[in-house]
Design a protein that fits this description.
The chain is mainly α. It has six helices and no strands.
Amino acid sequence: AVRRLAVPWSPRQIPNVITTIRILLVAPIAVALAHHQLLITILLFGIAATSDLADGFLAKRFGWQSELGAVLDPAADKLLLATVFVTLAYLGLVPLWLMAAAVARDAIIVLGALLYRLCFGLLNVRPSVVSKFNTLCQAAFIMAVVGRAEFSIPPASVVMWLGALVFVTVTVSGIDYVLIYGRRALSLR
């Protein structure tokens, strides 16, 4: 007889399940985008963005935060946004410098977190307001770029302004993370 290992289920796992679904959506979004199936891209990206709001709301509202969720949620965001930015740049829909800035910010944050973990131990990261705003700006910019490519809306000027806003928020939030966690690391020495 095969013995099954029982995994206890609780509603506390719902935010992590939603986050996992967002991670699983990354590949279909990239494939749809690469094949110029922009309506499908918009739909899937919209679902992924909504799932980000849903898992955060549920975790906070019902106290369902977990250590796994604290790692999975930002990882899902970074994976989704970086993948879409790289794909959009490859397709020529986003300037390379903007893609490089967005991806470099996330790479610096991830490498900094790993270095902090190796040198000092657990890192309690809470996204700052500017970081949350940056994620919102990136999502809005991506939707605007894809919407412009598929439906010629919004106007090009709106896409340009959103792109500029993304660059500013990427830069400010990246510097913010480096300063906050750099100071924290220096205080532990």
